[in-house]
Amino acid sequence: MNKVLPHIALDSGKSPQHSIIWLHGLGADGEDFVPIAEEMSLPVAVRYIFPHAPKQPVTINGGFVMRAWYDIAAAEIHAQQDASGMRASQAEIEKLIAQEKQRGVKAENIFLAGFSQGGAIVLQTGLRHAEKLGGILALSTYLPLAETLALEASPAAKNTPIFMAHGHNDPIVPYSLGKSSAEKLSGLDYQLEWHEYPMQHSVCMEEVADIGTWLAQRLTGQV
Asked: Is 201 a catalytic residue?
């Protein structure tokens, strides 16, 4: 088994048969979404995996070294994309998926969730993963490497449900970029549900409630 990224693992009950791999945003770490996971009351036991992104210099932040899933070269985040960095992170998330499968969790019971940079990587990974996953939650983010998706997309991913959410007033990842990403995926017949909220680059309580409802439906097959 290939070595996986350092991560926090949290089981919400005994012998979970479902896993949620949840990626933080730029400069944060795996601790970032632990409180939200602990807040959610899901109908079945879930294993949460919160990986820590590797530390690397980030160009837009003056080369300062921080936890990042890929480099960002310009203020217009999707203009000069770090394809190699994105693909390297995709490979790391694939290792985490493989780990959960080795533990006996079926691919269809594995969910990928991510915020901002983490959201871009769960879209990058989930849309290219060979099997249908339980779902993809992409929060305050955008579709990376959109120009290669048609060539690289997995046919199985067309059946993976996607939850995308964005704040109207996001100064980091523009609302228009998130919305156009969702429209592109919907136009390609992905099973996408779009949510928007009066917030900036953050997560709000209404969004957490909507995530809980969406997850509960898919964890119990009541869709």
From this structure: yes
CATH architecture type of domain 7-219? 3-Layer(aba) Sandwich (3.40)
In DSSP terms, 139 is beta-bridged to 115, 165
Per the residue annotation, which of 89, 116, 140, 181 is the catalytic one? 116
For residue 176, what are the contacts with CB-CB under 8 A and spacing of at least 6? none
Cα–Cα distance for residue pair 219/37, rounded to 1 Å: 15
**The predicted structure's pLDDT at residue 74:** 85
* 168 tagged catalytic: no
pTM of the shown model: 0.97
Tokens of 125: 């990974």
Return the domain boundaries, the chain.
7-219
How do strand 192-197 and strand 162-167 relate by DSSP bridges?
A: parallel
